[in-house]
């Protein structure tokens, strides 16, 4: 009850009993868990736990949060002590109960090798907790599915029948495969969302495109979307010699005519992590940048167009959406988060982790069937 009722003696005598009975109810167990993490020290204020005003808008750095630096520093110390996930958001969609859990770690920590074991342990604990609570799917968001050291652009990659093999020790958990192998009887399905990410990327490329420039770390999604583009007869251009050799060797001789290592005036760029500012400035006017990574590139060009990281518009049936997911607009959800929801809605029994992927067309059709809609491509919305 309001404090003024206690001051003026107007408080209802039954209110204390009502409160005690209400807190005794059993905790609601989730059907789907999305596992994310903090990005920067200030990102805590952009969650529901922080300021509702900031949480309702896409994440951006604001100067006045520096005034709270003593509080931010205290919270950073607290996260080092309290190494457990916490609930960030609760939603409901078609009788499916959704929860978003966050790991108290920051983006920079995922790039430190000494943090690998600690982060892996927290993710594993979250997976087992979701299993205990009866969740049918757990989606791995941001860098919880795979991360690399700062020298990730030097990593050795190759693709053999949609399998990506990496040097040992560079990855965090091989897109969640580590936990499936360690716990083979795991009932909760781990989902990395790669197949839906590829589907969204393919549908974000404007119709009539004949060339696409690929730049960024060659991830599972990058290999899969490149393979799909080659099958559609779209030429893939790369800027670096090592990337050209990896892709050329991976896909075989029948795709060699699709690749080009020479820079051209290509107007559609697929970009990921390790996409430099210098390379961004080389783009011609009117270029469309489409990120395939979890984090968006810094927007440096006012004469170019920037699409969001792979995401879709949520249906109105999704309840209790009063905050933004990181830098995405209101009621827009990342495909990595949507993929876990689809797994539960469709009752799919297979894991989507490691270097395996679900059928791209099947996932895309299921997504549209449940009311998720693709976002408008910036170049199309201004035409």
Q: Any overview of this molecule?
A:
Helices cover 31% and strands 17% of the residues. The protein has 383 residues and is α/β, with parallel strands linked by helices. It has 2 domains: 28-194 and 314-370, no CATH class; 203-310, 3-Layer(aba) Sandwich (Rossmann fold), CATH 3.40.50. A 6-stranded parallel β-sheet has the order 10-9-8-11-12-13, with helices on one face. A 5-stranded mixed β-sheet has the order 2-3-1-4-7, with helices on both faces. A hairpin with a 2-residue loop joins β5 and β6. The model is unreliable at 149-169 (pLDDT under 50). It is a multi-pass membrane protein. Its main location: membrane. Pfam families: CER1-like_C. InterPro entries: CER1-like_C.
List the helices and strands and how they pair.
Elements lengths: L2 H6 L6 H9 L8 E6 L14 H4 L13 H13 L4 E8 L2 E8 L12 H17 L4 E4 L17 E3 L2 E3 L11 H6 L6 E3 L2 H11 L6 E5 L4 H12 L3 E4 L2 H11 L7 E2 L7 E4 L5 H5 L6 E4 L13 E2 L4 E3 L18 E3 H12 L13 H10 L3 E2 L3 H4 L2
Parallel strand pairs: 1-3, 1-4, 4-7, 8-9, 8-11, 9-10, 11-12, 12-13
Antiparallel strand pairs: 2-3, 5-6, 14-15, 14-16
C-alpha Rg (nearest Å): 22 Å
The ordered string of helix (H) and strand (E) elements is HHEHHEEHEEEHEHEHEHEEHEEEEHHEH
Tell me the major beta sheet: 6 strands, parallel
If strands are numbered along the chain, what order do they take across the biggest sheet? Answer: 10-9-8-11-12-13
Low-confidence spans: 149-169
- Count, helices: 13
Keywords for this entry:
Rossmann fold, globular, 383 residues, 6-stranded parallel beta sheet, alpha/beta, 2 domains, 5-stranded mixed beta sheet
């Amino acid at each position: 009850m309001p404090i003024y009722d206690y001051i003026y003696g107007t408080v209802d005598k039954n209110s204390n009993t009502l409160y005690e009975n209400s807190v005794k109810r059993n905790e609601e167990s989730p059907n789907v868990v999305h596992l994310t993490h903090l990005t920067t020290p200030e990102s805590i204020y952009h969650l529901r736990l922080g300021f509702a005003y900031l949480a309702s808008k896409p994440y951006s750095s604001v100067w006045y949060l520096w005034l709270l630096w003593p509080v931010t520093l205290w919270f950073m110390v607290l996260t080092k002590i309290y190494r457990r996930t916490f609930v960030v958001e609760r939603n409901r969609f078609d009788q499916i109960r959704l929860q978003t859990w966050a790991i108290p770690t920051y983006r920079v920590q995922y790039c430190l090798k000494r943090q690998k074991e600690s982060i892996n342990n927290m993710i594993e604990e979250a997976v087992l907790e979701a299993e205990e609570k009866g969740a049918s799917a757990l989606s791995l968001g941001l860098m919880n599915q795979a991360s690399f050291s700062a020298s990730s652009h030097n990593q050795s990659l190759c693709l053999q029948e949609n399998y990506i093999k990496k040097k040992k020790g560079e990855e965090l958990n091989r897109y969640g495969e580590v936990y499936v192998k360690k716990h083979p009887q795991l009932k909760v399905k781990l989902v990395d969302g790669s197949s839906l990410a590829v589907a969204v990327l393919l549908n974000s490329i404007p119709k009539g495109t004949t060339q696409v420039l690929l730049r960024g770390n060659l991830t599972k999604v990058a290999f899969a979307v490149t393979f799909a583009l080659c099958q559609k007869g779209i030429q893939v251009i790369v800027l670096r010699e090592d990337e050209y050799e990896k892709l050329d060797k991976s896909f075989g001789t029948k795709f060699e005519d699709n690749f080009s290592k020479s820079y051209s005036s290509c107007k559609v760029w697929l970009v990921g992590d390790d996409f430099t500012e210098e390379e961004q400035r080389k783009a011609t006017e009117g270029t469309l940048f489409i990120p395939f990574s979890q984090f968006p590139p810094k927007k440096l060009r006012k004469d170019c167009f920037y699409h969001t990281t792979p995401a879709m518009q949520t249906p109105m049936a999704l309840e209790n959406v009063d905050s933004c997911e990181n830098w995405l607009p209101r009621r827009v959800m990342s495909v990595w988060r949507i993929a876990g929801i689809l797994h539960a809605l469709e009752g799919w029994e297979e894991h989507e982790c490691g270097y395996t992927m679900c059928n791209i067309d099947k996932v895309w059709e299921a997504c549209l069937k449940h009311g998720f809609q693709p976002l408008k491509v910036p170049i199309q919305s201004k035409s």
